[in-house]
């Protein structure tokens, strides 16, 4: 019998070689991919509300026959308008779409149509604006798309909900019996979980919402269970190795804590204690340090670097961008310039340095003349060889993959690894993504920091915003103005950094000094602009999100973010974190028009708090876990339906079972567990590259 992952989707009834290309766009290549392509939500069409009984202001599903259609251009907005009127014998409703002229050929009078959207009234007539729609063809179509709970899938151009449902139904009928059960039978029986055939059937076409919930819970448990096993195996593969036993006396720890001209916060002291205990343990440290922008993570990370130095070893700090790497390097240089650490030699290693300088650095790092190397992913190049790397810091973990983390650790003999992030991660995601790491949190800000106030303006208030900028510059402050795109685009009706820079320089602020920085500039050019901004030679810096991390200009306490609705919540928080870094209060101005309920929720959240952990929780609630980090983040690709936010109880149950299994059989060497080892290797080949299970 062939496995379903080996059978191309083109052999499913109604697909074929040509349509297979459409499925590939959705990430579906095999029959297994198709059966595991789950709905993103459901519509209850068992008892549709008659049009005459719909409630204005609510989101509802209605169905009827197409009575008429009209295609016109709006005299007011100049947009193309497609209007369709449907009738269900109880009443009529008009549905309107803008700038989608191709719809005109789809709506044929007399055909049955289903629409889902918000009910409004316009000129005493019921109306839906831009509803989701489906046109039905015959009785077979209605059996899958009406009078039942209907799955709603993610789509791509050329694939309709109707066609996708029909294809998945055909695939289930032909291949369901070939689905392989991967959860151990004893585990399914213990937790009353249904078999995989029933669960896959009910996740696509449930008879009731109870069936759908049971199927969701069962598949979620499986996803969480195998992923948690992979995380635990990953941790065991590292922590069971012999690490470097750093000798750290009370005197050396106190010397570090008292080396600065200010008091460390209680949270910083606590994390230093945790790092010290790890470094003395003799097992490799794997610790995630969470702390808001400006909370003092770099100083805490420096403790480990200094302790490595005092024990005769080397340390390194890896950052995702050259700007952030340079920022860390400059901050660390200031911290070690005086007192107890002045003999510690630090170097910057980024891809932009000259070859002669790079070759010289290779040699110095290899023979131990450099004690601390700060750099970008260039540090994991094969040419970089440390004499004795015992402490590695990775900043902004979510911008690096698990494999990159492992490659850096391979530069030493099981070094201690500290991972830092300024994107606070809610507990549920910590368990899901970072169950292999110990967690430290800095939840206090150093004293003497200014507050940041955030205000929302509309695009019609540009004049007021520009007046505010001029006023702040006159007071001696510097200003960031952030745009979502670099150059104007025909597809996007957005202001762009380059064009606005020219406008400011030649018209709006011609009497002020204007700078421009964006991601397409050469590193040298970017550095020169940032140096001029730091030296107060630029009043207004026009920028893209290239300044999101690693930029520290204490005199720049005003930030204007144009088209703020286009940015993610974490991104808005990171950008805002660039101001209020000195004693002066910061001012963040969002210029936005919320286009969707999600963008409106983001704006409300960023206006309501400056606390990074609260922002992260809002972000997770708005976007869901799959988009919190982006799907490239390891673990989230494999969680097709499991949601740590809404299924914490299932996650914790699965983790408990995963811990029990790995405590009993840490290498999955028992005959009864070998197939689990194979499943883990198949699902997480990159993550478990170094794990020798079995």
Task: Report the β-strand fraction as a percent range.
Answer: 15-25%
Return the CATH architecture of the domain at 452-609.
3-Layer(aba) Sandwich
The outline comes out as: globular
Mean pLDDT: 86
> Pairing-aware structural class of the strands and helices?
alpha/beta
Helix fraction bin? 25-40%
Q: Biggest β-sheet, characterized?
A: 7 strands, parallel
List unreliable stretches of 5+ residues.
629-635, 690-694
Radius of gyration: 29 Å
CATH superfamily placement of the domain at 452-609: P-loop containing nucleotide triphosphate hydrolases
At CATH level 3, the topology of the domain at 452-609 is Rossmann fold
CATH class descriptor name of the domain at 452-609: Alpha Beta
End-to-end gap:
26 Å
Annotation, overall tally of beta strands: 21
Number of helices: 23
Spatial arrangement of strands, main beta sheet:
11-12-10-13-14-9-15
């Amino acid at each position: 019998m062939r496995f379903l992952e080996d059978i191309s989707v083109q052999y499913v009834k109604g697909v074929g070689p040509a349509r297979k290309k459409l499925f590939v766009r959705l990430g579906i290549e095999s029959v297994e991919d198709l059966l595991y392509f789950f709905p993103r939500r459901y519509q209850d069409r068992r008892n549709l509300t008659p049009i005459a009984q719909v409630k204005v202001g609510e989101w509802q599903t209605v169905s009827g026959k197409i009575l008429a259609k009209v295609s016109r251009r709006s005299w007011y907005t100049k947009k193309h308008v497609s209007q369709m009127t449907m009738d269900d014998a109880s009443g009529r409703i008009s549905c309107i779409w803008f700038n989608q002229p191709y719809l005109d050929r789809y709506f044929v009078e007399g055909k049955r149509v289903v629409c889902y959207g918000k009910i409004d009234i316009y000129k005493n007539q019921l109306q839906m604006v831009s509803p989701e729609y489906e046109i039905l063809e015959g009785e077979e179509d209605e059996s899958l798309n009406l009078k039942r709970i209907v799955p709603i899938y993610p789509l791509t151009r050329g694939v309709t909900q109707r066609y996708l449902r029909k294809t998945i139904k055909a695939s289930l009928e032909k291949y369901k019996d070939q689905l392989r059960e991967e959860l151990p039978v004893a585990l399914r029986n213990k937790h009353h979980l249904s078999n995989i055939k029933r669960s896959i059937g009910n996740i696509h076409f449930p008879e009731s919402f109870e069936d759908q919930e049971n199927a969701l819970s069962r598949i979620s448990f499986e996803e969480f269970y195998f992923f948690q096993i992979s995380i635990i195996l990953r941790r065991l593969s590292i922590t069971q190795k012999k690490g470097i036993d750093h000798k750290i006396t009370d005197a050396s720890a106190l010397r570090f804590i008292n080396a600065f001209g200010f008091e460390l916060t209680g949270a910083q002291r606590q994390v230093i204690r945790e790092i010290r205990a790890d470094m003395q343990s003799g097992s490799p440290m794997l610790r995630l340090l969470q702390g808001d922008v400006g909370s003092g993570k770099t100083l805490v990370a420096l403790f480990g670097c200094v302790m490595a130095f005092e024990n005769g070893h080397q340390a390194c700090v890896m950052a995702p961008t050259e700007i952030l790497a340079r920022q860390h390097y400059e901050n660390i240089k200031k911290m070690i310039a005086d007192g107890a650490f002045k003999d510690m030699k630090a170097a910057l290693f980024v891809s932009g340095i000259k070859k002669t300088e790079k070759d010289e650095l290779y040699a110095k790092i290899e023979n131990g003349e450099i004690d601390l190397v700060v750099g970008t992913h260039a540090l994991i190049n094969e040419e970089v060889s440390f004499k004795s790397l015992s402490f590695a810091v990775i900043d902004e973990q979510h911008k690096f993959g698990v494999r990159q983390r492992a490659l850096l650790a391979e530069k030493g003999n099981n070094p201690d690894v500290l991972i830092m992030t300024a994107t606070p991660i809610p507990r549920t995601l910590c368990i899901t993504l970072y169950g292999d790491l110990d967690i430290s949190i800095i939840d206090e800000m150093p004293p003497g920091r200014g507050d940041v106030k955030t205000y929302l303006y509309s695009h019609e208030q540009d004049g007021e915003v520009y007046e505010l900028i001029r006023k702040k510059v006159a007071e001696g402050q510097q200003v960031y103005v952030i745009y979502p795109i670099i150059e104007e685009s025909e597809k996007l009706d957005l202001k762009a950094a380059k064009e606005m820079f020219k406008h400011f320089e030649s018209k709006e602020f011609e009497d002020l000094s204007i700078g421009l920085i964006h991601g397409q500039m050469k590193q040298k050019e970017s550095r020169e602009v940032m140096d001029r901004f730091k030296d107060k030679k630029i009043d207004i810096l026009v920028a893209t999100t290239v300044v999101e991390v690693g930029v520290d200009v204490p005199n720049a306490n005003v930030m204007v973010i144009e088209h703020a609705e286009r940015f993610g919540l974490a991104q808005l928080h990171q950008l805002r974190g660039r101001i209020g870094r000195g004693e002066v209060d910061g001012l963040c101005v969002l210029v936005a028009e919320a286009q969707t309920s999600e963008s409106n929720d983001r704006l409300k959240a960023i206006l309501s708090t400056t606390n990074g952990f609260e922002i992260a929780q809002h972000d997770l609630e708005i976007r869901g876990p799959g988009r919190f980090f982006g799907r490239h983040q390891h673990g989230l690709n494999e969680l097709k339906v499991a949601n740590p936010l809404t299924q914490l109880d299932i996650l914790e149950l699965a983790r408990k079972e995963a811990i029990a299994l790995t405590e009993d059989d840490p290498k999955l060497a028992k005959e009864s567990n070998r197939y689990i080892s194979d499943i883990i290797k198949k699902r997480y080949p990159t993550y478990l590259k170094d794990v020798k299970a079995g």
